Amino acid sequence: MKWKEASVDRGDNLDAASLYKSLDQPDRADHLWRYTPWKRVHPSGDLDEIPIAASPKLTLTNLDDSSALVGISVEEGVVGAEVLPESDEVTASFIRAAAKDSVYTLRVENNFVSNSPVVLDIDTGDSNCALHLTLDIGRNCEFELITQISGAAPWTGFLRTGRIGDGSILNDVVIGHTDTGILLRVDSITIGRDAQVKAGTVSSGSDRTKADLRYKMGETGGHLNVLGSILSAKEMHLDHHIEIHHDAPETFSRLDWHSACGGNSRTVGTGMLRVAKGARGADAGQLFHNLLLSDKAEADSIPELEVSEHDVVGCGHGTANGPVDEDQMFYLESRGFDTNQAKDALIAAFLNSTLVEMGSEALHNWLAEHLQDELEDLKS
User: Fold this and answer.
1) Is pTM beyond 0.90 here?
2) Cα 253 from Cα 255, distance rounded (Å)
3) Which residues of 129-154 are buried (b: 16+ CB within 10 A; e: fewer)?
4) Where are the alpha helices (DSSP H) in 249-357?
5) Which terminus of the chain, N or C, has less C-beta within 10 A?
6) Going residue by residue through the chain (380 aa), what tens digit of pLDDT does each one get?
């Protein structure tokens, strides 16, 4: 199937459903779609169909429940929800259309500070589910946000748009923890002037995940660390595409992605760092690490760079694949670990190297406990 060539205006007058139906079918020559064709993450496989999707249940709390949340709230409706022009139109318009009755804003007032991580729980329920969430984060905020997606929906679409305000410090972790099914996730986020952001992804739940995460650094002084801890087993297929756009001078980014793959599973990580002409002093780097836990597991990583500015601090990329280290296994077994305990310890240590960078000690302890639970669940 091939959709008709788009001949309509893509402005505000075109609703999301009409925009989606006007677009060409995604091209598998694009790295975004090379390993996971659009048909495999569409809820029905009929590419003309936009499903009726239920709204999830949203709950906003403090991790330690120590105090009421003041200055941060989830509100129905969207303000400033534009999708970045650098984002993929097919996935963004499709989720917007599916989530037309499930549109919310996470609003954070200027100068909001929280000493305890804030938790946004998204319960998908047990039917097709879609959510469009805008991040409206004010200036000079400082907090940690855990967004946890759970439930038994056969298909979940999750679109985040918005902006991190000037001077804000945000540790932003999204956890994909659905029981089974398909998770289609899109981030289209702008980083404000002098903002410092850690964007973490922890993925281990769905049968199939397709994530397209894009960040625009269009103002001077932005600092972004994108971190991934991905655990796959059985027949899982977890595919994450990350793009970071350095459009302004003196911006910094690092992409560090760790995937542990067992069973017959497959993980995919594709990264693109783009440094635009005029982005003087940009500093960008990416590194993918894959730990193969079985002979049948697969891991693909493709790091890419596009640098149009010669006056940069540095731009680099790399990837590394390998099995569990037999010497480390022998050492742990000689210290009393059985084979399964030793293997679990090495998997946890491998994934913990990015978990520990995602935020505070309180956040890390919570994430490490979550990781141990996931390792136990995947063995059952």
Assistant:
1) yes
2) 7
3) bbbbbbbbbbbebebbbbbbbbbebb
4) 326-334, 339-355
5) C
6) 344 333 333 444 468 999 999 999 898 888 789 999 999 999 999 999 998 899 999 999 999 876 678 999 999 987 666 889 889 999 999 999 999 999 999 999 999 999 999 999 999 999 999 999 999 999 999 999 999 999 999 999 999 999 999 999 999 999 998 888 999 999 999 999 999 999 999 987 789 999 999 999 999 999 999 999 999 999 999 999 999 999 999 999 999 999 999 999 999 999 999 999 999 999 999 999 999 999 999 999 999 999 999 999 989 999 888 888 888 888 888 888 888 888 888 888 999 999 999 999 999 999 988 888 877 766 65
CA-to-CA distance for 238 and 240, rounded, in angstroms?
7
Instruction: Tell which residue, 186, 209, 340, has the closest CA to residue 265.
Output: 209
Q: How far apart are CA 344 and CA 254, in angstroms?
A: 27
Residue 146 corresponds to which tokens in the numbers above?
């855990």
Tell me the C-alpha distance between 355 and 362, whole Å. 12
Q: For residue 151, what are its two tokens? A: 């439930």
* Token output for 92: 């963004």
Which residue carries 């910094």 as its tokens? 252
User: For residues 161 and 190, is the Cβ–Cβ distance under 8 A?
Assistant: no
